């Protein structure tokens, strides 16, 4: 196993959108043979699974008020909160490294982490529900995987001293409203800091990362680890993939199961995201979400739009209802009419 350095020109990268895209580059583009490991830190962000409905997972008002990023990963699993007191690790495997790695087997990828934490004083470590790492029966890491060709990524979080209160506010309780996305399984979580030996309890996150990596690779210093450093050429391709997909609202906010189209509107009343499907001259499915009004308000407006003919007159009639303009604001009517009816003849 070797280390993959994700710094850029010697600078630590904490942009969650960037960091969450690197595994896709490594698996789909670079394809380094063997078994690599990368470990990084994100600024505050909510990371949702590829098959999740973001409106059922996050509080958009909290995200906007606290500058929390929303990022969709290409693997499954539930929504998690990251901040600068949390580590993310990812095993990147291409081909057969002949070290026991096997896609779908979370245990083999968890063991290096668990062995290192044991050496750092943590007791009562375990794995539950196949992919959750636990200490004293409480979850401190959730793992996910994705595969592409002969390569795959397997990773998870390591909660060192995560702001749990912020996580609880950014992530909302399970919704009773039906949706086609995979729902998160909210379980009790805990930080590792209190379980570590005293020498590791008061480290900054980069020092904790360094100590953990040294234990994983059984060395005294990071420069003793075989390391692949992302090059200028690597970063050029990563940037291209970000522009094409991973940094777009259409991917992070709009790629929700059950909808064909997505648009985003910046309104005087807030940011409004719009998922919809047009079929046979009607709006078959609509989902409005964002920082306009409340989730309940937007859900009710969405329900009123379902079944409406995809003509400007029909959509405008719904949106001009006083109860709706009181929530969206009069300035929302024409932009939303355009979004829901443009090129409708192709639907």
TrEMBL record:
GO BP field: protein lipoylation
Gene3D superfamilies hit by this protein: Bira Bifunctional Protein, Domain 2 (3.30.930.10)
Reaction equation(s) it catalyzes: L-lysyl-[lipoyl-carrier protein] + (R)-lipoate + ATP = N(6)-[(R)-lipoyl]-L-lysyl-[lipoyl-carrier protein] + AMP + diphosphate + H(+)
Keyword flag Chaperone: no
Pfam families: Lip_prot_lig_C (PF10437), LplA-B_cat (PF21948)
Chain ranges of the BPL/LPL catalytic domain: 31-224
Residue ranges of coiled coil: none
Keywords annotated in UniProt: ATP-binding, Ligase, Nucleotide-binding
EC number: 6.3.1.20
Enzyme class: ligase
Molecular functions (GO terms): ATP binding; lipoate-protein ligase activity; lipoyltransferase activity
Entries under InterPro entries matching the protein: aa-tRNA-synth_II/BPL/LPL (IPR045864), BPL_LPL_catalytic (IPR004143), Lipoate_protein_ligase_C (IPR019491), LipoylTrfase_LipoateP_Ligase (IPR004562)
GO cellular component, one term: cytoplasm
Highest taxon above the source species: Bacteria
UniProt protein name: lipoate--protein ligase
């Amino acid at each position: 196993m070797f280390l993959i350095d994700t710094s850029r020109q010697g600078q630590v990268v904490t942009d969650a959108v960037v960091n969450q895209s690197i595994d896709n580059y490594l698996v789909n583009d670079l394809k380094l043979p063997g078994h690599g490991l990368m470990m990084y830190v994100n600024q505050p962000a909510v990371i949702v699974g590829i098959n999740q409905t973001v409106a059922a997972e996050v509080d958009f008002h909290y995200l906007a008020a606290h500058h929390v990023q929303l990022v969709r990963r290409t693997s499954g699993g539930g929504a998690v909160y990251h901040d600068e007191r949390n580590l993310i690790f990812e095993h990147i495997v291409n081909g057969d490294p002949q070290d026991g790695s096997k896609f779908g087997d979370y245990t083999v990828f968890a063991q290096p982490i668990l062995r290192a934490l044991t050496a750092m004083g943590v007791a009562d470590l375990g794995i539950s529900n196949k992919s959750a790492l636990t200490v004293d029966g409480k979850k401190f890491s959730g793992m996910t995987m994705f595969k592409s060709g002969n390569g795959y990524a397997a990773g998870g979080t390591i909660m060192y001293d995560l702001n749990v209160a912020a996580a609880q506010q950014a992530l909302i309780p399970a919704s009773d409203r039906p949706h086609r996305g995979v729902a998160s399984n909210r379980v009790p979580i805990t930080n590792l800091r209190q379980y570590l030996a005293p020498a590791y309890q008061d480290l900054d996150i980069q020092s904790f990362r360094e100590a953990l990596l040294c234990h994983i690779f059984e060395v005294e210093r990071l420069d003793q680890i075989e390391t692949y450093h992302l090059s200028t050429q690597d970063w050029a391709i990563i940037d291209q993939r970000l522009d094409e997909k991973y940094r777009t609202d259409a991917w992070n906010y709009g790629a929700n199961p059950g909808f064909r189209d997505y648009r985003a509107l910046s309104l005087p009343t807030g940011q409004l995201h719009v998922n919809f499907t047009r079929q046979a001259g009607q709006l078959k499915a609509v989902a409005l979400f964002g920082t306009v009004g409340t989730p309940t308000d937007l859900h009710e407006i969405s329900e009123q739009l379902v079944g409406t003919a995809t003509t400007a007159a029909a959509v405008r009639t719904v949106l001009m209802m006083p109860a709706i303009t009181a929530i969206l604001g009069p300035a929302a009517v024409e932009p939303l009419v355009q979004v829901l009816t443009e090129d409708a003849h192709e639907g």
